Amino acid sequence: MATATATATTTNITFHPGSRLIMICQSQRKGGPLATKGITIWLTGLSASGKSTIACALEQHLLHLRKFSYRLDGDNIRFGLNKDLGFDEKSRNENIRRIGEVSRLFTDAACITLTAFISPYRADRALARKIHEEAGLNFVEVFVDAPLEVVEQRDPKGLYKRARAGEIKEFTGISAPYEPPLDPELHIKTAECDVKEAVRIITDYLLEKGYIS
Ligand SMILES: Nc1ncnc2c1ncn2[C@@H]1O[C@H](COP(=O)(O)OP(=O)(O)O)[C@@H](O)[C@H]1O
Ligand SMILES: [Mg+2]
Q1: Which pLDDT does position 17 carry in this prediction?
Q2: Residue numbers in the chain where pLDDT is lower than 70
Q3: Among 51, 83, 105, 179, which residue has the least CB neighbours within 10 Å?
Q4: Which residues form the APS kinase domain (predicted)?
């Protein structure tokens, strides 16, 4: 059962638990529509490492398998929920804190939740994991890894070029740090495997661990 995981600064609020997980398990036994417990698949890596591309392909594949899946994408979220945030360290912390919370909600709703965010700081990713684990929810970190030379070469949005020219400040890998995961569940080197292979690696992992059947 999900519980409040952080100290709320607002006073006079009390967490109101429900019996969602029990209902999901019952529904699952009857072959009902909520036939999954939910999991957050957290993709992290440099800009242009392939997070969005892999998340899109994975979402499509999971939907073909008739799994309830939803993708939260870094750029997309900045058009709405996080449009008030910039790219300084504090804003990046808040960006990821919010996505940690939102992905927890989706996963609590029995969704296979795919997040595609640079999420450059280890502490922020650790917080996202903690938010899930404290709520008894599954969380898998996937390092979408490609060397800086490769992502700069790809540069699908021309951002590295602009960052090198000094037109974009605090750009991850150029003028802002990226702290690679030390112990991710999965490490996908996108300079060495194509998108299809990346989707296969993640799907095989989900099958092997029993997150999907
Ligand atoms: N193996 C791969 N996996 C994912 N993307 C790849 C791969 N090889 C080349 N690419 C290309 O790299 C770019 C990655 O861009 P994108 O998915 O937007 O990255 P991110 O979301 O990490 O910023 C795309 O143009 C994609 O076609
Ligand atoms: Mg992206």
Answers
A1: 72
A2: 1-9, 20-21, 23-36
A3: 83
A4: 37-189
Q: Which ligand is nearest to the CA of 172?
A: 1
User: Residue 30 carries which DSSP code?
Assistant: T
Q: What beta strand segments (E) does the chain contain?
A: 39-44, 69-73, 112-116, 138-145, 186-189
- With a CB cutoff of 8 Å and minimum separation 6, the contacts of 5 are 104, 130, 131, 134, 135
Pocket of ligand 1 (CB under 6 A): 45, 47-54, 116, 154, 156, 190, 193-195, 198
Q: Tell me the residue type at 126.
A: A
| Structure confidence by residue, pLDDT tens digits, 118-161 | 999 999 999 999 999 999 999 999 999 999 999 999 999 999 99
- Residue 151 has a pLDDT of 98
For the record, the structure tokens of 162 come out as 């602009």
Distance 1 CA to ligand 1 centre (A): 37
Query: What is the number of other CB atoms lying within 10 angstroms of the CB of residue 197?
Result: 12
Residue with tokens 């808040």: 94
How far apart CA 116 and CA 136 sit, in angstroms, is: 22
CB 162 within 8 A of CB 207: no
19 belongs to the catalytic site: no
